[in-house]
């Protein structure tokens, strides 16, 4: 996987501040997680960058952003997929949905994004699967098979499991799971 500067460009085009609560916007430049309410955080930019590089998003991809939170990662992903791609953000905390939609409306990526409330008992968006890329911004206890089933052939999922970042690639029925260091996240609600 060759590193280019598409992730750096996405960070320049999609500023963090509009996706933060007003009382946190002055801290947008800090490389730290910031509270966004409901016990959730806007992830540390270093962590988001690492995850996006592992995800290796391609123009035209269909992406699931699970745990979309503030909507910042959804907007970054929308920039990476370009005009031919699509991003579905799924969030469990209903109070975060409207603020993230409002922030997305300030970007030119709103047309290719959707942020929706997670349905109880459903992980991801199986009705819209398969996805070329799946980004999970919450820590799972174990690798969720329901998300692996939503991954397209040739697709990639990046997910923290326990405290370890995993990159899973699908090749037909085969899955290749590699580990990429320790990170901390809020817990993934899997009910």
Helix share bin = 10-25%
**Total number of helical segments?**
5
Which range does the strand content fall in?
A: 25-35%
What is the count of β-strands?
A: 9
Helix- and strand-based class? alpha/beta
How would you sum up the global shape? globular
Instruction: Report the end-to-end length measured between terminal Cα atoms.
Output: 34 Å
* pLDDT < 50 stretches: none
For the biggest β-sheet, the strand order reads 5-4-3-6-7-8-9
Largest sheet: 7 strands, mixed
Mean pLDDT: 92
Query: Compute the gyration radius: what is it?
Result: 15 Å
Q: List SSEs in N-to-C order.
A: HEEHEHEHEEHEEE
Fold and architecture overview:
The protein has 191 residues and is α/β, with parallel strands linked by helices. The protein has five helices and nine strands. It has helices spanning 6-13, 45-55, 72-81, 97-105, 145-148; strands spanning 34-37, 40-42, 62-66, 86-91, 113-117, 131-136, 151-161, 164-171, 174-182. The strands form two sheets. The chain has a seven-stranded mixed β-sheet, with helices on one face. Strands 1-2 form a two-stranded antiparallel ribbon. A hairpin with a 2-residue loop joins strand 8 and strand 9. It is globular. The N and C termini lie far apart (34 Å). The model has no long low-confidence stretch (mean pLDDT 92).
């Amino acid at each position: 996987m060759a590193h280019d500067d598409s992730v750096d460009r996405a960070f320049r085009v999609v500023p963090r501040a509009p996706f933060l609560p007003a009382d946190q916007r002055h801290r947008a430049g800090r490389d730290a997680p910031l509270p966004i309410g409901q016990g959730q955080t806007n992830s540390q930019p270093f962590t988001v960058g690492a995850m996006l590089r592992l995800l290796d998003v391609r123009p035209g991809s269909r992406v699931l952003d699970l745990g979309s939170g503030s909507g910042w990662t959804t907007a970054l992903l929308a920039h990476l997929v370009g005009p031919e791609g699509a991003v579905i953000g799924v969030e469990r905390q209903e109070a975060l949905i409207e603020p993230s939609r409002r922030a997305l409306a300030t970007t030119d990526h709103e047309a290719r994004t959707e942020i929706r409330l997670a349905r109880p008992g459903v992980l991801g968006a199986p009705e819209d699967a398969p996805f070329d890329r799946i980004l999970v911004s919450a820590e799972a206890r174990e690798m969720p098979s329901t998300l692996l089933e939503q991954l397209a052939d040739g697709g990639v999922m990046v997910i923290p499991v326990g405290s370890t970042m995993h990159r899973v690639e699908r090749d037909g029925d085969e899955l290749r799971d590699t580990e990429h260091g320790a990170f901390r996240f809020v817990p993934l609600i899997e009910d």
